[in-house]
What does this fold into?
Amino acid sequence: MIEVEVKVRAGHSKVRPILKKMGAVKLGVERQSDIYFAAPHRDFAKTDEALRIRSLDGQAVLTYKGPKLDGVSKSREEFETPVDEAATIQILHALGFSEAGLVRKHREIFSAGDIIICLDSIESLGEFLEVEIVADNEKDLETSRAKLFELLKQFGAGEKDSIRTSYLEMILGKSNHQETGKNSN
Amino acid sequence: MIEVEVKVRAGHSKVRPILKKMGAVKLGVERQSDIYFAAPHRDFAKTDEALRIRSLDGQAVLTYKGPKLDGVSKSREEFETPVDEAATIQILHALGFSEAGLVRKHREIFSAGDIIICLDSIESLGEFLEVEIVADNEKDLETSRAKLFELLKQFGAGEKDSIRTSYLEMILGKSNHQETGKNSN
It folds into this structure.
């Protein structure tokens, strides 16, 4: 199973009436706070690794993401454990890890058929729309992408508005030039 | 509050009848498995730090112990969080930490008045007796130590039998010369 995602900038006040019109069902609301850490002994940006504490509705999880396993898919090793957030931050600091970035996200989740639609408000970045579909295999990838862009048309967004930069990278000011559709919503 | 501890070698078959005679009360049994980790970027033996996963009756805890804060007491910073053991080992390995030592302990805990008596069986090391008392302040330290050695007399052990080396250090073969009372039980 492969998650196919497309993210665009979109003011939520314009998005909501369209969601309602298409009969999207609200699934829930999440408050995520992601703290990303830098290691004292190697540069995660260069090694394509990540160490993160995600706090979701009061529950914290420590996640390590390894380098992508190949150049095509987004597959990577991922290990995670529930933790006590405050103590884990203290342990990581004591070991020489430092906070590299903080992503605070308020996410409203909707479903429309087999598509998941997320209204993301990111602290210091603004409002986004992320649409997601789960493809069964590589073959369905293009079909799924096409389906997502077809949906996005209803919100006035096209392929050119797709943002490939992660929220963390946007916050860290990296690769901002990749974000072409800043004012398209 | 200060924990005052004294540890000696002692065959448990000789200890049990004495415990019974003195009316010690059995409080419980613990199976501890401690994995100590070495860091990729500094030598914990030199920095006087420790990173450990303790698995106690199926529950795992990650603990960081900082350097001793002064030369007199055993006080040190300590942070700990419950974790999933397998995932945390994978995360630490992926970050370059390696297993430095494993201490497997079977501990039976008894109380005799205000003294806690532990019968420790350590894999690859053998059987030990650890007696412990909680002193309210530094002033009571010497009184508490004297009380512990008075109790140990009943088991045929004296000050010369006291082992200051930790189980991990003993397993790693460090400071074995400090262990003077090896055959005293």
Notes: Confidence is low (pLDDT under 50) at residues 175-185 of chain B.
